[in-house]
Amino acid sequence: MQHILVPTDFSPEAHNAFEVALQLAQRTGGRVLLLHVLLDAPSGGGAMVTTGGRTSGGDLDDLFMVRRLQMTKHRMARLLAEAAETAPAVRVLDMVETGTLEEAVLELIGRHQINLVVIGAHEHASARPLFGPDSYAERLVRRATCPVLTVKHPAPAFAAHTIVFASDFAPEADRAVPALRQLQAAFPGAMLRLLDVATGAARRAAALARIHDFARRHALPNCQPTVHDEARVPAGIQPYAADAHTDLVVMLSHGHTGLWHLLQGSIAERVAVQTAAPVLTFHPWEQIEVGAGARTSAQPA
Question: Which of 24, 169, 206, 263 lies 20 to 30 Å from 295, alpha-carbon distance?
Answer without folding.
Answer: 169
